[in-house]
Amino acid sequence: MTGDLDAKSALRETLPTVFGYIGIAVAFGITAKANGLSIIEITLLSLLTYAGSVEFVIVSLLAMHAGIWSILLSVFLVNARVILMSTVVAPYLSDETMAKNIWIGTLLTDETFALSMNKLNYTGRKLNFTWFNVSNLAAYATWVVSSALGGILGNLINNPERYGIGFALVAMFIGLLYLQVIADRTIKLNLQLTVIGAVVIMMYLGMTVIPKNGLLLIVTLLGCSIGVVLKHGIK
Amino acid sequence: MALNSYVLLVIVSTCLVTWASRVIPFILLKRFKLSKLVVSFLGFVPICIMTALWMQSLFVQHLGQLPDLNVPNVLASIPTLLSAVLTKNLLVIVIVGVVSLGVLNLIL
Q1: For an interface test with A, which of B8, B19, B22, B65 has the most A Cβ atoms less than 10 Å from its Cβ?
Q2: pLDDT in tens, A8-37
Q3: CB-based contact (8 Å) between A40 and chain B?
Q4: What H or E segment, with its residue span, contains residue A223?
């Protein structure tokens, strides 16, 4: 990583991230196909919603025939951390026009956010539109094309359930959960495990009385509340 | 190449929700400040929702009584979790998960 904020260094620095994207996006395409989405729906979802793990959640909720409002509330909650990231990035681009700010925000993702925070250490705490835009566009293009490829790949496999492909989504949630637990240093490990345990118990017991679509949201909100109470109580 | 109208509605509306989350802070710029408790609450969302989605695939719901276990999914979760710990690579994790359930489907 260098101190230059031009298009070329943006591309060079985004490439490693982009390679990470390809595998996840292809896996997403295959999974979405196995869960009943068509290739065009997969491509549109990545093109318009463009939200990584949120797209996995959407596919999972669609497969459960969840209602529109519970899907939207879940998407808002899972995606809410993006509000934090935009809030952090915005002041660095306050010299650029409003339209440019909106455009950078439109394609901001976890990965380009992380990259930009890293970049700050090399540029004397500066960012600009060109660097951010090229980085965003490279990540976006890769995500959309790779998820479409995954959909096409999923199409080639007949009777996917027999080969356990339906489990791809669950495996992805397990992976995302584990990666989140080890990456998040703002919450102590013990507290994370306690909250996870509470969610497991609430899901198990809740299944007896509440239909699963609604239960998912209720348990998520309760789990977060328990986390907040424990975090601020323990401290 | 089907395009279901409900799926289209979901795509367009989730597009608006994710776009608003990304762009509104840029518009409000520095005036925008979330309270510490809200930030803390949002920090727990990923682990809670991922765990809940995972559990949903492990339990078979019978309203009015305790759920049954989905045994193949429970068993397939073990090597999947192990591969997560060992590789930390999402693609590997997905492949291990799929192969595990595929093998279990052959045996069970």
Answers
A1: B22
A2: 999 888 887 676 678 778 888 988 998 889
A3: yes
A4: helix A212-234
